[in-house]
Design a protein that fits this description.
3 domains, transmembrane helix, two-stranded antiparallel ribbon, Hypothetical protein af1432, Arp2/3 complex 21 kDa subunit ARPC3, hydrolase, 704 residues, mainly alpha, Metal-dep_PHydrolase_7TM_intra
């Protein structure tokens, strides 16, 4: 009663609004189930206190403070990059030569002057000539007395001093020389100048001043290369990380400023709890719900089917979340990973049976992501990837290998394959973990994998009837149950209308083959055929396949006969509803004749001269709404017509099938379903092939 009221309530809401409400409620529930798994462990600890326990890092983070210190130390350790300039010795020798050459020119100008030039004016002339050099060399300072000595010296002495000093400077600068080493080199050069006999006594002081000024660095700091080297040294320093699982402080150890800083960086203090993980969880849930929203919003099905698939999928997903949360809560009492007990393929198998493969695939991925959060341990990464992959592999194994559920062996096979995949994944988990597991641990994990696979199948089969009953769903398993000959209605058809039963079996074979040829639901068509004529059990003798002699229609008015024949669709639907049969089977019963005409009785009425409305001889319909119903309507007419044919052969059968299909098309019987002319041609070919195999010519055996 509650479920019926709930169904009536949601039918009043538009599908998109219902989709939004359901996903929002699911997201909210999921958030509260998973929030504790992302918050992490925090401690109420103060500086200088003793640690109440051994605290390990709950995640891997970069210690930016230590990283920056190490990078600064690496930068300081880089030696400056110097460049040796081999052109400096010759340049400085030229510098020396230029000074003496200017002095010689000034001296020549003085000698060629018409009048005697005073000494002060001579010194001024020389200083003017050397002005540019003095301006560019602040350490070159010559007194007036020294300049007068230069002007007083002979040309030979000047040239001799020039050459000797230039040679000394050039030779002494042919070595790497840095700025901080200039003073010793200048002192050494001064000593060498004093030992030069080619430099006169009057020019000695001048030569010393010029020589000391000529000594400059030959190795110059390359600031660009030095900066690059420092940057490379900084970049070469790997970030200092606090690793996941690393011990931050031992139990009973004093909380120093450094330890406190690390706990603060890790967000493991009560005052430093980060909202980032919570925000991340919200993003994950929104991403999951967005996928589901797009999936169901774009599904091209009728609203009722979409609504049922949505509710079923969400309920299955929520059940899985609750199961995972319960397992996670008790997992703290175990040293081993008990998450592997979770039925890895349960969600996938249920959604696949109750909805479709596409929805099952999406929900499998979403469930795996949620499992990675719920089973997340304090020292694992963002997700518990081993359990997430475990569910992914188990779920997709069921999608790939559970292709059919028409036999119980199909289910057992799917469960067996899921179990095998679980065990193989456990082997991967144990080997990749490189842990020293003993036989007990290995046995536990293998047992968990087996339990997971068996639970997937057992819970699927156990929960399936409840979903089918609550939402009126027609699953493969339900169809298989309905195809059991021991079903009360099938027994009724067999015992009360054996001819109809045989006809239904034959139609089922034809319809199933035709459905499979165009990609329709062959199993639904087969089971629908079993029950499509159940209404004939109300008046079995009025249908020719059940008659054993006289035909009651021979003595009846055509309109009365038509009324009885037509009523078998509505009578059948009423009987099916009474037995709480799925709506799809009821629809097939009502639609398998559509609104076609009972031509036999219509012609009979005309022969009798009766002017009756043609609607009296038409089925009430509705017309076939699905491909399965359309195929059954064709197969039903074809089987009955071929069975009544005298000496059927391939040519007669093909012509008959073509005629029946064309008649249905011309009568607009397929206007309300999405079957195409191309598909009708395939159906024709399959029906002819199947009928030829059934009604093939046989050898006439000789009489004895």
């Amino acid at each position: 009663m509650i479920i019926k009221r709930f169904n009536k309530l949601i039918q009043l809401i538009s599908f998109r609004a219902l989709l939004f409400i359901v996903l929002a409620a699911t997201a909210l529930l999921q958030f509260f189930l998973m929030i504790d798994n992302v918050r992490g462990v925090t401690y109420d600890i103060q500086l200088t206190e003793l640690s109440p326990e051994t605290i390990r890092s709950s995640k891997t983070v970069e210690d930016t403070v230590k990283t920056e210190i190490e990078r600064e130390n690496a930068e300081k350790a880089v030696d400056p990059v110097y460049i040796y300039k081999d052109e400096v010795p010759s340049q400085r020798a030229t510098f020396v030569t230029t000074i003496f050459d200017i002095a010689l020119e000034v001296k020549k100008d003085i000698a060629e002057a018409e009048e005697e030039i005073p000494q002060a004016e001579q010194i001024k002339m020389l200083r003017t000539g050397l002005k540019d050099i003095f301006d560019n060399h602040q350490n070159l300072i010559l007194s007036d007395a020294q300049l007068l000595n230069v002007l007083s010296a002979s040309q030979a002495n000047l040239e001799s001093a020039r050459d000797a000093l230039a040679t000394l400077v050039e030779v002494n600068l042919n070595y790497p020389l840095r700025k901080d080493s200039l003073l010793p080199y200048r002192n050494e050069l001064e000593s060498k100048i004093r030992q030069q006999p080619s430099i006169s006594e009057g020019l000695m002081s001048v030569a010393i001043v010029i020589g000391r000024a000529a000594i400059v660095e030959t190795e110059v700091l390359d600031e660009e290369k030095t900066a690059i080297a420092k940057q490379q040294a900084k970049e070469a320093v790997e970030p200092t990380r606090i690793l996941q699982g690393q011990i931050i402080v031992q139990e009973g150890e004093v909380i120093t400023r450094e330890i406190y800083r690390q706990l603060e960086l890790l967000g493991m203090l009560d005052s430093e709890e980060s909202i980032k993980p919570i925000a991340g969880l919200i993003i994950l849930i929104l991403l999951q719900m967005s996928f589901l929203f797009v999936l169901f919003d774009r599904t091209e099905k009728d609203i009722a089917s979409k609504r049922n698939e949505l509710l079923v999928t969400i309920i299955v997903y929520v059940i899985a979340l609750i199961m995972m949360k319960l397992i996670a809560l008790i997992s703290t009492n175990f040293d081993l990973m008990i998450a592997f007990i979770f039925p890895s393929a349960l969600v996938t198998m249920l959604v696949r049976v109750l909805a479709n493969d596409r929805t099952a695939s999406i929900v499998t991925i979403i469930t795996a992501a949620s499992a990675g959060i719920i089973f997340h341990e304090g020292l694992s990464g963002i997700l518990q990837m081993d359990t997430a992959l475990y569910i992914l592999f188990g779920g997709f194994a069921s999608i790939i290998f559970m292709r059919s559920l028409e036999k119980r062996t199909d289910i057992l096979q799917a469960v067996g394959i899921v179990t095998l995949v679980n065990i193989v994944f456990i082997a991967f988990y144990i080997l990749m973990g490189q842990s020293g597991y003993g036989m007990k641990e290995v046995a536990f994990y293998v047992a968990a994998a087996i339990i997971s696979g068996l639970l997937s199948g057992a819970l699927m089969m156990g929960l399936l009837p409840y979903f089918e009953s609550a939402f009126g769903l027609l699953s493969v398993v339900r169809l298989i149950e309905l195809s059991n000959p021991n079903h009360p209605l099938l027994k009724k058809i067999l015992t009360e209308t054996p001819g109809t039963y045989h006809h239904s079996i034959m139609v089922a074979n034809l319809a199933e083959a035709a459905c499979e040829a165009i990609g329709a639901d062959g199993l639904l068509a087969r089971v629908g055929c079993y029950y499509h004529d159940v209404g004939k059990t109300r008046r079995p003798l009025f249908f020719i396949e059940n008659q054993m002699g006289t035909n009651p229609h021979d003595t009846m008015a055509p309109e009365s006969s038509a009324e009885i024949i037509i009523a078998h669709t509505t009578d059948g639907a009423e009987l099916l509803r009474k037995h709480k049969m799925p709506q799809e089977i009821i629809d097939i019963c009502l639609q398998h004749h559509g609104t076609s005409t009972l031509k036999f009785f219509l012609f009979k009425a005309k022969e009798e001269g009766k002017e009756l409305d043609e609607s009296v001889f038409r089925y009430p319909g509705p017309k076939p709404q699905t491909k399965e119903a359309a195929i059954i309507s064709i197969a039903d007419s074809v089987e009955a017509a071929v069975r009544s044919m005298q000496h059927p052969n391939a040519e007669k059968i093909q012509k008959l099938v073509q005629t029946i299909i064309q008649d249905r098309v011309q009568d607009d019987q397929f206007d309300e379903c999405d079957i195409s002319l191309k598909e009708l041609k395939k159906i024709e070919d399959v029906l002819c092939e199947t009928l030829n195999g059934t009604f093939h010519s046989r050898i006439e055996y000789p009489k004895e």
